[in-house]
Specification:
The structure holds 2 protein chains of 2 kinds. By secondary structure, chain A is an alpha/beta fold. In chain A, 44% of the residues lie in helices and 15% in strands. In chain A, helix 1 (12-26) runs parallel beside helix 4 and helix 4 (97-109) packs antiparallel against helix 5. In chain B, strands 1-4-2-3 form a 4-stranded antiparallel β-sheet. The chains are: A alpha/beta, B alpha+beta. The interface between A and B is medium-sized, with 21 and 22 residues.
Chain lengths: 131, 99
C-alpha cells in the first residue's frame, strides 16, 4: 500500500473535484481522503474532520496533507495535536493544492516513501505552468 | 558504464501530452533506472522535463502533432526509450502500471 493523501479544503466541492482529477491519474492505487468544508455545508476547515480522515486512511507508510489556503494550516496543526500518535507518519505539504496533490499522487503511485512524496508535492511550488 | 539512447517522434494523441497520457508516460518512465529527459521540439524554447515528473512533462505544452525528443542515459537507456516510444506510437492505448 502506498503513502496516502488527505485533501484539506474550505469547500467540499473543491476537494472532491481534485479527488476526481487525482483518481484519473492514479487509477485508484493511492489512498486519498477528503477533509473539507465546515459544519452543515458551510465553507471552512475542521480539525476534527482532518484528524478523522488521517486516522481512517489505510496508509501505514504515512500521509501527506495538502491544503487549499494558508488558513487551513491551523486546522491541520490542531488535528495533529488531537491525535499526537499520528505526528510521526504525517507531513503537511507547503505546496499548491492542485499541482502539489497531483504530483504527490503520482509519486505515491510509484511506490515512493513519505519524504519523496512530500518532496514531489513541494517541488510543485517552483514549477511554471506556461510552456 | 553508462549507455545513451534517444528518439524524436510526433505525439498523435488527440490531447497531446495532457494529464492522463502524461501520467501513463511518467509511470512507464519510472520503471527504468535511466535518467530520461524530454523536450518539445515543435515548441522549442529549450525547456527540458524530467520524464519522471508529471508537472514538468505537462508543462512542456505538447499538443497533438507536436514532436518530442526523449534522451536517456544509464544502463537501461535503450529499453526505456523503446518502451516510451512504443507507448507514444500506440496512441497511449497501453495502460502501464508501476511494478
Amino acid at each position: 500500500m502506498s503513502v496516502g493523501l488527505v485533501l484539506v479544503a474550505h469547500s467540499r466541492r473543491l476537494a472532491e473535484g481534485l479527488l476526481e482529477l487525482i483518481e484519473s491519474v492514479t487509477q485508484g492505487g493511492v489512498p486519498v481522503a477528503v477533509a473539507a468544508g465546515g459544519e452543515e455545508g458551510a465553507l471552512g476547515t475542521s480539525a476534527a474532520a482532518i484528524a478523522e480522515a488521517l486516522e481512517a486512511l489505510p496508509a501505514p507508510e504515512g500521509v501527506v496533507v495538502l491544503m487549499d489556503l494558508g488558513s487551513a494550516v491551523l486546522s491541520a496543526e490542531t488535528a495533529l495535536d488531537l491525535v499526537p500518535a499520528l505526528r510521526g507518519r504525517v507531513r503537511v505539504a507547503d505546496a499548491p493544492f492542485v499541482e502539489g496533490a497531483v504530483a504527490a499522487a503520482v509519486e505515491a503511485g510509484l511506490g515512493s516513501g513519505l519524504e519523496a512524496v512530500l518532496a514531489a508535492a513541494e517541488a510543485a511550488r517552483a514549477q511554471p505552468k506556461l510552456p | 558504464m553508462s549507455e545513451g539512447a534517444s528518439v524524436e517522434l510526433a505525439v498523435d494523441h488527440e490531447h497531446g501530452l495532457h494529464l492522463r497520457p502524461a501520467a501513463q508516460f511518467v509511470r512507464l518512465a519510472a520503471r527504468y533506472k535511466a535518467t530520461i529527459r524530454v523536450t518539445n521540439v515543435t515548441r522549442g524554447g529549450g525547456r527540458e522535463a524530467n520524464a519522471r515528473s508529471l508537472l514538468e512533462v505537462t508543462a512542456l505544452g505538447v499538443d497533438r502533432g507536436h514532436r518530442v525528443r526523449l534522451i536517456a542515459t544509464g544502463d537501461d537507456a535503450e529499453e526505456a526509450i523503446a518502451a516510451l516510444a512504443a507507448l507514444i506510437r500506440s496512441g497511449f492505448r497501453a495502460s502501464p502500471r508501476s511494478p
